[in-house]
């Protein structure tokens, strides 16, 4: 199992009660105690958990964040104005990968949002956790829209459920379109562990993962890891992607599309 997958499972195990034991993690991860300790050390250094005797717990401020739901990162209304031309080109390139009549999943974000205007007339079923995307698709009478259950996070206008809680419709799709806060050699990253869990749920239901990020996302290097680059099938970005990063992405077997 890849380290990014183990880290996601550790965070999901923490969510229900805020504490998980080493014994539980050994059973859940099928990994050695030394491997689990290294995983916990990385997550603690990232501020995502706190190691304690016998296991790990959520950091002290996690309970407060749970009472007043909010996500780390730039609010949608501000992020939508950043690098807009690149995001629009990426959205068009992503829409061209869709096949009329199929079901797709679209994760919330300002880049994935740019797909919406190009989906009219294709007769798609779209599962999304973004209320912005829902509103953009509603005028398309031939587009069927599905959403999961959960809490609305107002800054991003996104619907998310706690890790470990089943909130998704029974839906399987050939393609998942998703964004990211950052992309680097270590993988695809998000600012918030709640987003990590939600995106892993989407990935579990998709045959192909299509990542949509503008080139500024390659200049950041920190965040909670969603997945390794080897779990991405297609990456759509703009011509500003660093050459070294493009080479690493292709070396992982990822199809790189420059919009």
UniProtKB/TrEMBL annotation:
GO terms for molecular function: DNA binding. Coiled coil: none annotated. The keyword rRNA-binding does not apply. CDD domains: HTH_ARSR. Residues 53-74 are annotated as: Disordered. It comes from the Bacteria. Residues 3-58 form the HTH deoR-type domain. PANTHER family: HTH-TYPE TRANSCRIPTIONAL REGULATOR SRLR-RELATED, HTH-TYPE TRANSCRIPTIONAL REGULATOR ULAR. This is DeoR/GlpR family DNA-binding transcription regulator.
């Amino acid at each position: 199992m890849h380290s990014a997958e183990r880290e996601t499972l550790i965070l999901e195990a923490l969510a229900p009660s805020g504490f998980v034991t080493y014994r539980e993690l050994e059973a859940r991860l099928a990994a050695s105690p030394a491997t689990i300790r290294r995983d916990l050390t990385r997550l603690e250094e990232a501020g995502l958990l706190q190691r304690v005797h016998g296991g790990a717990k959520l950091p002290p401020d996690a309970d407060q964040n749970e009472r007043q739901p909010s996500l780390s990162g730039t609010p949608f209304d501000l992020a939508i104005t950043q690098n807009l031309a690149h995001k629009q080109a990426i959205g068009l390139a992503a829409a061209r990968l869709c096949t009329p009549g199929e079901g797709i999943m679209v994760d919330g974000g300002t880049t994935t949002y740019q797909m919406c205007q190009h989906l009219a007339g294709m007769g798609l079923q779209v599962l999304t956790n973004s209320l912005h995307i829902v509103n953009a698709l509603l005028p398309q009478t031939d587009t069927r829209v599905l959403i999961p259950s959960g809490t609305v996070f107002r800054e991003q206008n996104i619907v998310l459920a706690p890790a470990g809680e089943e909130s998704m419709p029974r839906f399987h799709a050939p393609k998942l379109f998703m964004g990211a806060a950052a992309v680097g050699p270590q993988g695809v990253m998000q600012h918030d562990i709640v987003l990590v869990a939600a995106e892993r749920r989407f990935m579990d239901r998709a045959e192909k993962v299509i990542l949509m990020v503008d080139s500024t996302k390659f200049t950041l290097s920190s965040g909670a890891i969603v997945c390794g680059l080897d779990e991405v099938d297609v990456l759509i970005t703009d011509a500003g992607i660093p050459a070294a990063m493009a080479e690493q992405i292709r070396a992982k077997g990822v199809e790189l599309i420059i919009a």
